[in-house]
């Protein structure tokens, strides 16, 4: 399935990308940074660092954290965090719609996957950037 993944670059090396949005979505879904990190195959430390870095870009917080304790820590999206995810996914959907015809034209020229190689090419590790 063809997808468009958007990266929005702001001044000063600040950006919003697919990986950061996916991490936010998973935090909202799981209620935990640790569980979101696990779902993405990244370390808890990396996810925590990414959320600190991503959150520092905005005047409003993206997530609310409840630190450990008896039941462990928890995290949930703030209204702004949930809205950011919604807006980003909306932009992706619009881009896919706008570029549907040229994408269809390009897809017609794709080679068929080889039967000897049933797995698609691996993506670069997300540890470099999310």
From TrEMBL:
Top-level taxon of origin: Bacteria
Region described as Disordered: 109-130
Molecular function as annotated in GO: DNA-binding transcription factor activity
Matches recorded under InterPro entries: LysR_HTH_N, Molybdate_resp_trans_reg, WH-like_DNA-bd_sf, WH_DNA-bd_sf
Pfam families: HTH_1
Ranges annotated as biased composition (Basic and acidic residues): 109-120
SUPFAM superfamilies for this protein: Winged helix' DNA-binding domain
Domain HTH lysR-type: 21-81
Protein name: Molybdate transport system regulatory protein
